[in-house]
Design brief:
The protein is globular. It is about 25% helix and about 35% strand. It has a seven-stranded mixed sheet, sandwiched between helices. The protein has about 150 residues and is α+β, with helices and mostly antiparallel strands. The protein has one domain: Gcn5-related N-acetyltransferase (GNAT) (Aminopeptidase), CATH 3.40.630. Strand 6 and strand 7 form a beta hairpin. The protein has three helices and seven strands; from the N terminus they run E-H-E-E-E-H-E-H-E-E. The longest helix has 18 residues.
Length: about 150
């Protein structure tokens, strides 16, 4: 899989459409969660996406320190359902962490993780900070990486 990092203004219309489709497919349809995905935060984030056979099958958006949390952050981490068996989520996280180091030159990262993915994020050296909370009807936890 080939990972690409782009600013919002660099995304093509087709790339943006594919990203929004993937996010909707997983976060709205698969997780049966009605929420406003298009939140006007995409314009100030960097977009990390993985291509397989010229199709976007993995995606995250990253923020510089202060734009979302005090630390840099990673959000909207998603892999197409039929591609998860290949562990692309781990490749996506590595690409996202590397993009934060490359573009922002920092190591401290904060995420708002769905609680059921705690062990997944722990494999990337994130640790839970604080108590569980509900976001869009789904249990989440804050996790930090230093």
């Amino acid at each position: 899989m080939n990972f690409i990092t782009k600013y919002f203004s660099e995304l093509t219309t087709d790339e943006l459409y594919a990203i929004l489709q993937l996010r909707s497919e997983v976060f709205v349809v698969e997780q049966d969660c009605v929420y406003q995905d298009v939140d006007f935060k995409d314009q100030k984030s960097l977009h990390v996406f993985g291509l397989k056979n010229d199709k976007i099958i993995a995606y995250s958006r990253i923020f510089k320190p202060g734009d979302y949390f005090k630390n840099a952050s990673i959000g909207r981490v998603v892999v197409s359902n039929k591609e998860r068996k290949f562990s692309y989520g781990h490749h996506l996280m590595k690409a996202s962490i590397n993009a934060i180091k490359t573009y922002f030159n920092v190591d401290e990262i904060t995420i708002s993780a769905q609680k059921y993915l705690k062990k997944f994020y722990e494999t990337h050296n994130f640790i839970q900070v604080g108590e569980e909370y509900i976001e869009d009807g789904i249990p989440h936890i804050r996790m930090d990486r230093n």
